[in-house]
Amino acid sequence: MKTKNKVLLSATAMLVFSTGAMVTGTVAWFTASRQVSVSFSQVNVISTEGDLEVNLVGTTYTATPGAGTLAIAGLAATGTDISGDGVSFYKPSWNFDYSSATDMDNVTSLTSFPGYYVEFQLEISRTNVQTDNGYLVYLGENSSITPVTPADVNDLAAVEMARVAILDQAKTARKVLWTPDSDDGTYTYVAAGGSAPFYGLSGYQSVAYPTPSTPPAVGDFIVGDFVNHETLNVGETAYIDGNSPLIADLSAAIESEIVTVRIWIEGQDAHSSDDAKTGAFTVTLDLYAMSI
User: Fold this and answer.
1) How distant is the alpha carbon of residue 56 from its chain centre?
2) CA nearest 69: which of 55, 87, 86?
3) Range of 106's domain?
4) What is the mean pLDDT of each run of 10 residues along the chain (292 residues)?
5) Does a cis peptide bond (omega within 30 degrees of 0) precede residue 245?
6) How confident is the model over 64-93, as pLDDT tens digits?
7) Residue 120: what are its φ and ψ, rounded to 5°?
């Protein structure tokens, strides 16, 4: 049996939501004002493993390297509640009393103003001379989405609707879809197609993602806290006793991998509430490596 090395890096970010009047509606989505101002303040990426480097990809945001820390600033967007599987996103329009959908926009490419979610890419690299089979990098147990003010109703509502997806560099393959809200046993999202119309709108459907296996398959929807792996499988190719999703494969001759992080507010969430429009929360992504 092989055991984990240690925590390699962590990332922390804050999203602050504010908007105008709130009105009660008949659907789960936000009602009245549907545009939400999202201020994504900073991400701090901290690496405690000397053989590993983490760098921000692209020039949309700014990054300041330090002693084991990569501070990412300038993360700002304007958004609203959307729905999707992390790869594709949709935003419906509603009738006057919000009882049925009248149109649907594909907002997958809208990350800059007036965007609907936050996206950035990180390159995770191995800098050592390869002497064994390398590392597998997982999303770990210290990952969280927490309210800025623990007892604030608005902050708690925003946390319940928050989603995080980590994709590959091409943004076509999902590594994990996650919410820390343990009450969300089933993840429902909007997708194109289907025979049952979405709130009366043909051509779109509400899809329920299946319950994940343990260990999770690549791309699974995971609910609640992550459990770190400790045990390597018989073939020594993966770890199997936790539910931590594999984020980067730095094994064999692979020296680096670029991953895409997406964070959004899910309109199909069972706890969707207008309170979330004035909520604030922090996102922590905790990555750890296991040798193989």
Assistant:
1) 17
2) 55
3) 4-291
4) 39 38 40 42 47 69 55 57 93 89 91 70 73 75 82 86 93 92 78 92 89 75 85 76 87 85 88 77 77 74
5) no
6) 555 455 556 655 545 578 999 999 999 999
7) -150, 165
Give the chain's domain count: 1
**This prediction's pTM:** 0.82
Q: How far apart are CA 36 and CA 30, in angstroms?
A: 10
CA distances to 45, 63, 193, 240, 283 from 12, rounded to whole Å, are 7, 14, 36, 27, 6
The pair of structure tokens assigned to 53 is 């480097």
d(CA 256, CA 264): 26
Q: How far is the CA of 17 from the CAs of 43, 67, 102, in angstroms?
A: 17, 31, 26
Q: Each residue of 110-129: pLDDT tens digit?
A: 765 456 888 888 888 776 65
Burial of 93 (0-12, 13-18, 19+ CB in 10 A): exposed
Closest alpha carbon to 244 in 162, 141, 164, 173? 141
